[in-house]
Amino acid sequence: MSMGRWIGLLALGISLYVLWQIRSIVLTFFAAIVFATGLNRWVRRFQRSGANRGVAITLVVGFWLWRRLG
To answer: Rounded mean pLDDT of 42-48?
Structure first.
């Protein structure tokens, strides 16, 4: 193997190690994206009904919290 391939392999190993160490952050970030995508569908429905985006987001998050905590 050439020196460039060894450096690439070392960089891959270091990258995998770093990702493994921050896996909880990466998982939380991914979960937030999935959650936001799901809520965005409801926000768009409220927007089509005539509400502006800020009000729609407040309604959707408020309803979600009410259902979750109530």
So the answer is: 93
DSSP string for 5-69: HHHHHHHHHHHHHHHHHTHHHHHHHHHHHHHHHHHHHHHHHHHHTT--HHHHHHHHHHHHHHHHH
For tokens 């979750």, name the residue: 68
Answer yes or no: is pLDDT of 1 > 80: no
Statement: the pTM of the whole predicted model exceeds 0.85: no
Q: How far apart are CA 39 and CA 45, in angstroms?
A: 10
Distance CA 13, CA 20 (A): 11
C-alpha distance from residue 54 to each of 19, 59, 64, 67 (Å): 35, 9, 15, 20
* Cβ(46)–Cβ(59) below 8 Å: yes
